[in-house]
Amino acid sequence: MPLDAQRLLSIDMLPRSVAYGDREAMLYALAVGLGRTGGDSDLRFVYEDGLAVVPSFATVLAFDDSWLADAGIDLAHVVHGALDIAFEQPFAPAGAVDVAFRIAGLSDKGAGKGGLVHQETILSQNGAAACTVLSSLFVRGGGGFGGSVGRDIPSERLPDRTADDSVVVETRLEQALLFRLLGDRNPLHADPAIARASSFDRPILHGACTFGIACATVLRRFCALDPARLGRFAARFAGPLYPGETLGFSFWIDGDRIGFRAVAVERGAIVLDNGLAIVREA
């Protein structure tokens, strides 16, 4: 069913406050693969003494799918399209964020095809902006509503040359079940029957979890595990990742700009594309 553009653009979400504790921050870090090495390097994200917060935790703090029913959108027809986060300051180890949300625009892929809903969420903490989260949801069958309107999420392009760096990261079979405890309870990530009804072989990993794994990988490789050094982090979701598969990352380095792509190694399938990390000086 085509998206109802007028209905979507008229959604008025009141500002809200989201509180979190160090437990949620540490659970997120574990859910995106930090703390598995057995060494000291990841401890700052998974241990309360001197705790630091993974920047992509912003996706959990910004998450709210309560507007989908008001927009007439069936959750079963929705997958993540893209995320793009601009960071102003790191998050406190525990506290609250003020959340301002709006539907920023719609993209029409044509009748019988998909429609994209672009969201903008501004998170503030202690009276100052923390980050702006741009997120696109792809609604299957949602196209043909009359044409694109409003803001789109800009797409980066990777250089046409051999990658400068690469790394392989393993995922775990229970990773989607762990990640959904942070708030996104879409059964697509847990129930095999629902996954098959959506044309997947089995439950898939949340796109936001794959995005978080990529963020943790960039933190390790290019930011010396310092959240304050990450200025922007963005990627397009190009395909599903199944829990337990291996992620193969390729990186293109151009000064403070790190382009990246991630593939499911076992299938040779791209899962994240047109990725960009902007890294600040130490």
Report on this model:
Pfam families: MaoC_dehydratas, MFE-2_hydrat-2_N. Residues 20-141 form the Peroxisomal multifunctional enzyme type 2-like N-terminal domain. GO terms for molecular function: (3S)-3-hydroxyacyl-CoA dehydrogenase (NAD+) activity; 17-beta-hydroxysteroid dehydrogenase (NAD+) activity; enoyl-CoA hydratase activity. It comes from Phreatobacter aquaticus. With 282 residues, this protein is α+β, with helices and mostly antiparallel strands. It has one domain: Roll (Thiol Ester Dehydrase, Chain A), CATH 3.10.129. Helix content is 20%, strand content 34%. It has eight helices and eleven strands. Strands 1, 2, 3, 4, 5, 6, 7, 8, 9, 10 and 11 form an eleven-stranded antiparallel sheet that branches. The N and C termini lie far apart (49 Å).
User: Could you tell me the mean pLDDT?
Assistant: 94
Model regions low in confidence, pLDDT < 50 over at least 5 residues: none
Any idea of the CATH topology? Thiol Ester Dehydrase, Chain A
- Domain module count: 1
Which terms would index this structure?
globular, MFE-2_N, 17-beta-hydroxysteroid dehydrogenase (NAD+) activity, Thiol Ester Dehydrase, Chain A, 11-stranded antiparallel sheet, alpha+beta, 34% strand, 282 residues
How does the SSE layout of this entry go?
Elements: H1 5-9, E1 16-20, H2 22-31, H3 43-46, H4 58-62, H5 67-70, E2 78-87, E3 95-108, E4 115-125, E5 128-139, E6 149-150, E7 165-170, H6 175-179, H7 192-197, H8 207-222, E8 230-237, E9 246-254, E10 257-264, E11 269-279
Antiparallel strand pairs: 1-3, 2-5, 2-8, 3-4, 3-6, 4-5, 7-9, 8-11, 9-10, 10-11
